[in-house]
Input
Amino acid sequence: MKVAIFCGSQSDKSIMKISEKIFNQFNIKNKIYVISAHRLPDILSKTIKKIELIKELELIIAGAGLSAHLPGIIASKTIIPVIGVPIHHHNNGLLGGMDALFSIIQMPKDIPVATVGINNAYNAALLAIHILAIKYPEIKKLLFKFRIKKKEKLITEIES
Output
């Protein structure tokens, strides 16, 4: 497993599965964990210790809504880089995901968390892929192909 994907709740999983889908397109091993930072802190700590032993693990993506502590808590317990995804569900909260965004993006100094847009698990996966492409030529090749395909699709749409 190169990337661990964490969700703060089952309802977050539907959004975070987008990351899983992108990683699978790039043949990048990944695994999804659903663990609340608030409700199951001991299990979260044990899981982080356990996955740190996986030599291949290089990145973590963590998505959470509302107070969105999951990415920051994970980052505080490991030196594996964390990409945070602020999550908004239409049925939770009146702030449109801004609460989650600010909770993740305003991490205190010394414990950084990269942050993407609200519900943007897609870009979180692509950011992780760009990072992995620095080290892995096969991922870099697939990323170039992916970008060319996207560009060609946009050109086709403009021309039609």
Remarks:
- The chain is about 50% helix and 15% strand.
- Residues 137-159 form the longest helix (23 residues).
- The CA atoms of residues 148 and 154 lie 10 Å apart.
